[in-house]
Design a protein that fits this description.
The complex is a heterodimer of chains A (about 290) and B (about 220).
Chain A: H1 2-9, H2 13-29, H3 40-50, E1 57-63, H4 66-84, E2 90-95, H5 100-111, E3 113-114, E4 124-126, E5 129-130, E6 135-140, H6 145-153, H7 155-159, H8 170-175, E7 186-191, H9 196-207, E8 210-215, H10 220-228, E9 234-237, H11 238-249, H12 254-289
Parallel strand pairs in A: 1-2, 1-7, 2-6, 7-8, 8-9
Antiparallel strand pairs in A: 3-4, 4-5
Helix pairs in contact in A: 1-12, 2-12, 4-5, 4-11, 6-9, 11-12
Chain B: H1 2-5, H2 8-27, H3 33-69, H4 75-95, H5 100-119, H6 121-131, H7 138-154, H8 156-161, H9 165-200
Helix pairs in contact in B: 2-3, 3-4, 7-9
The chains are: A alpha/beta (about 290), B mainly alpha (about 220).
Chain lengths: ~290, ~220
């Protein structure tokens, strides 16, 4: 018996690494399809986008850096096409991170296709929405919270007259009546660095702008606080939330596939904790006493 | 004149004026020029933030060059860091942000490297779960119970197999974790207000670089 306890207490960490590698790899390649329950906050987020009306302006913020892309991309690749699928809705793309525009373009390339006669950015068509007709990309503005505050206080002044690629966007903004923060109907912020709190401070509190927030797991506690306080219209938390959104919206992707691996790793973590404690009480503590 | 510009009073005047123009329109309905000045000041911070990137580049290069010349600990990494940073800058400035060489560097090095560092956390986390989460006292037992229920609630399979655990996990997230997050948020906000007031009354001049803090 003590031998079993000793094994539990002295399992090499590389054994755990190997187990994770094998289990994640196997379940990603051969998903089992464990059941998934859709949470109320994701349903609410879905309904907010579903309720968008023609003429509504949606501002999408990419608060995304490379480290969080794999975790947030499930939300990006399901929520953004959902927004683009809504008739008559106009979209402004923006990023508060220097790497953000890379992921923004990656997303557009994945969910859209080049417009007829064009073969590069920004000329992509997504769900029939064409660049400079239905959506624009104002790109990266440095300053993070300062940029978000400046967009709220002087939208046209900060955006200027050209988009990220140097195209004139004045007529687009004029035609769609985008003059100030009050003209934006909805903000979707995809967060790796917790930008939602700045959107709440500078957009929700003064202008009551609706904000949806998808975020990576480490940013979740701050977002849940603001969601429970009614300041965020809906939240999509990490890969789990993204999988739920993909299931709801029908834009299936890697987040949904990864849920099996996600479940198994959570169970493995619990098993590791139990085994560690069995080893600690059965052998390690006895050795300390001896 | 230059001594006046470098003086405490001048900086304090700027801080107070800026604060007045930012705070007042936020809370009080103000006449037309004041919100315009507020907008201008906020937009100006974006420009300052852009210059801050240059300052960070300068300090990073200076620090790493010093480390390399003195052959300090980890100097080869410093060499690699400034080499790659300046390569990206030169390529980006000369060829543009959409140039294939620039995108190649981002796609081939930055994105996979960054994602890998983040992804290996799961390996450390599980191995640490076996080694570190040991019930040594009541505090660690409570922590373990909290982790157990939240993990069960988060895992779709856990919620399916043990549906009664879901509400417990949700209660912990929405009440226990929420209370701690709010305490942190409120404390940080109060600290920020106190710091702002100290700055406005000239008692926190180290923040604007006028006073050096004494070393402990």
């Amino acid at each position: 018996m003590s031998r079993a306890f000793k094994i539990c207490a002295t399992i090499d960490r590389r054994v755990w690494y190997l187990l994770i590698f094998v289990l994640v790899g196997f379940l990603l390649l051969h998903p089992v399809g464990f059941p998934l329950k859709v949470g109320p906050e994701v349903k609410t987020a879905y309904n907010v986008i579903e309720d968008l009306k023609p003429g509504d302006i949606v501002l999408i913020n990419y608060d995304i850096s490379a480290f969080g892309w794999d975790e947030i991309k499930g939300s990006a690749l399901s929520m953004i096409p959902h927004i683009f699928s809504k008739d008559g809705v106009k979209v402004i793309l923006f990023t508060d991170q220097d790497q953000g525009y890379i992921f923004l373009e990656t997303t557009i390339a994945k969910i859209g296709e080049p417009m007829a006669g064009y073969d590069g950015f920004p000329w992509y068509e997504v769900h029939g929405k064409k660049y400079l007709e239905d959506y624009i990309n104002i790109g990266f503005i440095p300053g993070f919270d300062k940029a978000i505050a400046a967009l709220a206080s002087d939208f046209r002044g900060l955006v200027g007259s050209t988009d990220w690629y140097g195209n004139n966007i004045i007529s687009w903004l004029d035609e769609n009546g985008v003059d100030a923060a009050q003209d934006i109907e909805l903000i979707l912020t995809l967060d790796c660095a917790g930008a939602q709190s700045s959107w709440v401070n500078y957009w929700y509190l003064p202008y009551n702008t609706k904000i949806l927030n998808a975020m990576i797991g480490v940013s979740a506690p701050g977002s849940i606080v603001n969601y429970d306080a009614g300041m965020l219209a809906g939240i999509v938390i990490s890969v789990r939330g993204a999988a739920e959104y993909q299931y709801l919206s029908g834009y299936y992707g890697a987040a949904l596939v990864s849920m099996d691996a996600f479940s198994i790793i959570q169970f493995l973590l619990i098993a590791a904790i139990i085994i560690g404690n069995v080893g600690y009480y059965g052998w390690e503590k006895g050795r300390e006493k001896r | 004149m230059s001594s006046f510009i470098r003086g405490k009073e001048f900086l304090l005047t700027i801080i107070i004026a800026t604060s007045v123009f930012i705070y007042f329109p936020y809370f009080i309905e103000s006449p037309a020029p004041i919100p315009q000045i507020e907008s201008w000041l906020i937009s100006t911070t974006v420009v300052i933030a852009s210059f801050a990137v240059l300052v960070s580049l300068y300090t990073m290069t200076r620090r790493e060059v010093m480390k390399i010349t003195k052959r300090g600990k980890g100097w080869p990494y410093g060499l690699l860091m400034i080499g790659l940073a300046w390569f990206m800058i030169v390529v980006g400035v000369l060829l543009g942000k959409d140039a294939s060489a620039f995108r190649f560097c981002a796609d081939a090095f930055i994105i996979p490297g960054d994602a890998t560092i983040y992804a290996i956390l799961v390996f450390y986390l599980t191995s640490a779960g076996a080694r570190a989460f040991k019930v040594r006292n009541l505090d660690s037992l409570l922590l373990l119970f909290g982790a157990f229920f939240v993990l069960m609630q988060q895992a779709p399979l856990g919620e399916y197999l043990f549906p009664w655990m879901g509400p417990i996990g949700s209660w912990m997230v929405n009440n226990v974790a929420m209370a701690a997050t709010r305490v942190f948020g409120i404390s940080a906000t109060l600290g920020g207000i106190v710091l702002a007031i100290r700055l406005l009354v000239g008692k926190e001049m180290a923040m604007v670089g006028l006073v050096r803090r004494e070393k402990d």
